[in-house]
Amino acid sequence: MKNLTSKTKKRLLIGLPLLVIAGIFLFMQYERTSTTHYCGTTCHIMKIPYEASFHSVHRETNGVGCKDCHIPHDNILEQIAYKGYSGARDYYKNTFAPPDVLHTKEWSEKILQRNCLRCHATLVARINTSDGLQCFECHRGEPHDTPIQPFSSQAVHTPIR
Ligand code: HEC
Ligand code: HEC
Ligand code: HEC
């Protein structure tokens, strides 16, 4: 600090707290836009997946929110990138091209699979998961629909291979 001119010191004195405040603000927005309530109610295309999740064991009151399955939890950089990408895509679709059925893209599928494994690793430890089958290809009802509902009426869709 000794070699700094008083002007630089003044700038640092004002700039640093501003930077900290901006950081806290950004962090709070990041958290706010990750809540199940925000994700489920901001866009009307999320109404059906949101309401269906109330009937699933994977519901918020059981400690499982949208973000627990839909964003990466093992890589913070990928988490930020994916959150930005999928958020922007959902906003676009919601505003300009509301789809009848929400299709799961490849990136989304990979993240979903990693999250199923993250929480259920102990249970599936002795099952061979390297055959390329996604958990949700069998557990199709989790958490967005009941398996007894015809696929044609489901709001989210996994292609059947
Ligand atoms: C238990 C994990 C889990 C939770 C919790 C969960 N989802 Fe999903 N979600 C899935 C799976 C699995 C699919 C793919 C299923 C399919 O396509 O049949 C999916 C698909 C979707 C899709 C279709 C498009 C895409 O991005 O893949 C949307 C939209 C969606 N979910 C929204 C939500 C919302 C909103 C919440 C919170 C209310 C939520 N999900 C909570 C597992 C989850
Ligand atoms: C954040 C942790 C978490 C994630 C992610 C998660 N689950 Fe679960 N899952 C739970 C909890 C908690 C339960 C209820 C307690 C239990 O039975 O272990 C549960 C229960 C289940 C059940 C039993 C269903 C029932 O009706 O009793 C199945 C099947 C299941 N999960 C499959 C999946 C699949 C497939 C995925 C990925 C799409 C997934 N889970 C992602 C935490 C998670
Ligand atoms: C080939 C189909 C298939 C695949 C793939 C599959 N499961 Fe299952 N799983 C079943 C069946 C069948 C049961 C027993 C019936 C039931 O409870 O739904 C079961 C049971 C479970 C249960 C216990 C359900 C309960 O009622 O307590 C959990 C949790 C679970 N699976 C998670 C997963 C996860 C995580 C993956 C991905 C690694 C996965 N499963 C992949 C077919 C599958």
From TrEMBL:
GO terms assigned for molecular function: electron transfer activity; heme binding; metal ion binding
Keywords: Cell membrane, Electron transport, Heme, Iron, Membrane, Metal-binding, Transmembrane, Transmembrane helix, Transport
GO biological processes: anaerobic respiration; denitrification pathway
Signal peptide from the UniProt entry: none
InterPro entries to which the protein is assigned, alphabetical: Cytochrome_c-type_ET, Multihaem_cyt_sf, NapC/NirT/NrfH, NapC/NirT_cyt_c_N, NapC/NirT_cytc_sf
Cell compartment(s), UniProt: Cell membrane
Gene Ontology annotations for the cellular component aspect, listed alphabetically: plasma membrane
Cofactor(s) required for function per UniProt: heme
PANTHER family in UniProt: CYTOCHROME C-TYPE PROTEIN, CYTOCHROME C-TYPE PROTEIN NAPC
Family as reported in the entry's similarity comment: Belongs to the NapC/NirT/NrfH family.
Naturally occurring in which organism (per UniProt): Desulfosporosinus fructosivorans
Cofactor binding description: Binds 4 heme groups per subunit.
Processing and modification events after translation: Binds 4 heme groups per subunit.
Protein name: Cytochrome c-type protein
Primary location: membrane
Chain residues that bind a menaquinol: K83, D90
Residues that bind heme 3: C135, C138, H139
Segments forming domain NapC/NirT cytochrome c N-terminal: 13-157
Tree of life domain: Bacteria
Binding site for heme 1: C43, M46, D90
Membrane topology, from the record: Single-pass membrane protein
Binding site for heme 2: C66, C69, H70
Keyword Membrane part of the UniProt annotation: yes
Residue stretches spanning the membrane: 12-30
